[in-house]
Design brief:
533 residues; alpha/beta; Rossmann fold; eleven-stranded mixed beta sheet; two-stranded antiparallel sheet; 16 helices; globular
């Protein structure tokens, strides 16, 4: 899922070589034959003003340095960017946020809106977030022009083209992603990001990690709890990800959930005279299907020197559907497209509402020989960093790699299943699944080892109407994590609950600030005002 907590959600090279070491700690606590990580755990963060236009004046930025490869810490380092809002009173430490994706840049997300959703937490904590390795300012990965080529190649498969030829093209594009991303691409994935978080914990001066993760951020939190159970403090997982399902299974679930959310949106839209699809919800659904197909046949130009296809439209709609609060903006953006051929509103939605870049530049390749990679200026983050990081992390986390022959045989069945799940999002989701072909096999650590964690109680929030992370994933992940997991049932709509439900917000804050946990299986009712734009 591509999702950031209240708005949303290519290559995993080298994931098979990830080595899980003893919980990364000062050398005295590590086995004698393990690499010495003590220098990374002696860091202190220097905070200062944040780079970039429009950053809140009270948001401070800093960095930590982490090993590129935890198995070989002398083989290079990279910086990970952090940002924080200071506690307003006496601080008990920090609470670390991850907004999901995978591939979402935490600093830009926390900066948007001045961090208003999290200001209550500053009553006791410094509220901290970060751009994970390969994301945002932290050595961002990119596929260059290969991003467009990959979508074209995968689209040919889903349209019935020769699977073997297209799989070959995907392998070629994988090498382009590696050339544009540099050495960090060999060490992407949740296992490494979790180890980075433990370095951050120590640098922040916290004995235990207090954490609030959304969507993919729940996978990251669960992996941390498995790797560092004795360092896990108060942990909240909102919009709970699966720890067991393959990318193919996840994509199918995502397509079904987004189709249901689209149907709900169109039912709402057709009650408004401004809806560009008329007044009949059934006919409106058919119009959207025809619009996606039309743009796939004849994409329209944008102001950035690129073409806007039906798959671009599906991606933009999918992003907006993660929050009912974005429905009015989606209605306006679709109206501009249908009436004037204007794609700008939809393009803004596709990147989470951020400002559009000035050009199509994807940045320059990262230096492959440098022993240390510093932070990247916000203006130099590649345009395709989000989708490139999304695939890099997901592929690094997924151990399934069928052979080219097996993949070619499976394409027809997958195409049928995805089209049945969603005539609008099926192809888009299947394309994401196919993009792992040609990448090294990912780690099996998450499926095999993240279970029965021995941590303090943690709070898992599942939302019944979540289009990205279905409620059953909350139940399944809670069962895997074991007796430490406490489930809060949010009977609302949209992706995650913290920003959309006052009840969820209060219960999460009460737990993080005061340690007050709701009973396992307790619930929050729907928000009548916010569920209906």
């Amino acid at each position: 899922m591509l999702s950031v907590h209240h708005r949303w959600t290519y290559v995993g090279a080298g994931a098979a070589t990830l080595v899980l070491l003893t919980a990364g700690l000062p050398s005295s606590a590590v086995a004698a034959d393990a690499p010495d990580l003590s220098r990374f755990y002696r860091q202190k963060i220097t905070w200062g003003a944040c780079a970039g236009d429009g950053m809140p004046a009270d948001l401070q930025c800093g960095k930590v340095t982490v090993p590129l490869d935890y198995a070989h810490p002398k083989n290079g380092t990279l910086d990970v960017a952090l940002a924080r809002y200071r506690a307003t009173g006496k601080s008990r430490g920090s609470v670390l946020l991850n907004f999901g994706g995978p591939g979402g840049a935490g600093i830009a997300e926390l900066a948007q809106g001045g961090g208003k959703d999290f200001m209550d937490l500053t009553n006791g904590y410094d509220v901290v977030t970060f751009d994970p390795r390969g994301v945002g300012q932290s050595s961002p990965v990119s596929c260059g022009e290969g991003a467009d080529q990959t979508s074209d190649a995968a689209g040919t498969v889903t349209d019935g083209g020769d699977p073997q030829a297209v799989l070959k093209a995907l392998r070629k594009v994988a090498s382009e992603c590696a050339a544009h991303s540099g050495p960090v691409l060999l060490h992407m994935g949740t296992v490494d990001a979790s180890r980075d978080m433990d370095v951050m914990r120590q640098a922040l001066g916290d004995k235990k990690l207090n954490y609030l993760g959304f969507s993919y951020g729940t996978r990251l939190g669960a992996v941390y709890a498995a790797q560092f159970p004795k360092k896990t403090g108060r942990m909240v997982l909102d919009g709970v990800d699966t720890l067991t399902e393959s990318m193919a299974e996840q994509g199918l679930v995502g397509a079904e959930g987004q189709q249901t959310a689209l149907d709900d949106f169109l039912t709402w839209c057709t009650q408004d005279v401004s809806c560009p699809f008329g007044e009949d919800p059934r006919e409106a659904r058919q119009q959207v299907v025809r619009l996606v197909a039309s743009l796939d046949r004849d994409p329209v130009p944008t102001g950035l020197g690129q073409m806007f296809s039906g798959q671009d439209l599906a991606g933009a709609i999918g992003q907006a559907l993660y929050s009912r609060e974005m429905w009015p903006a989606l209605e306006r953006a679709l109206g501009s497209l249908v009436e004037d051929g204007d794609t700008q509103g939809l393009m803004r939605l596709s990147i989470g509402g951020a400002s559009l870049p000035a050009s199509r530049t994807t940045g320059t390749p990262r230096a492959t020989a440098a022993p240390h990679a510093g932070l990247v200026d916000p203006a130099d983050i590649p345009v395709d960093n989000l989708p490139a990081a999304f695939m890099a992390i997901n592929c690094a986390d997924d151990p399934d790699r069928p052979s080219a022959e097996r993949a070619a045989k499976d394409v027809d069945a997958l195409r049928t299943a995805y089209e049945q799940a969603s005539p609008v999002f099926g192809r888009y989701r299947l394309t994401q699944v196919l993009l792992c072909h040609g990448r090294p096999r990912g780690t099996d650590y998450i499926r095999d080892k993240v279970r029965n964690v021995r941590t303090p109680k943690m709070l898992l929030v599942g939302t019944r109407g979540d289009p990205a992370t279905p409620y059953r994933w909350t139940e399944e992940t809670a069962a895997r994590l074991g007796s430490s997991a406490v489930v809060l049932d949010n009977k609302g709509e949209g992706h995650t609950g913290y920003a959309s439900s006052k009840c969820v917000h209060q219960k999460v804050d009460d737990f993080l600030l005061y340690g007050s946990l709701p009973d396992n299986g307790s619930s929050c009712g729907p928000e009548s005002g916010r569920d209906n734009p």
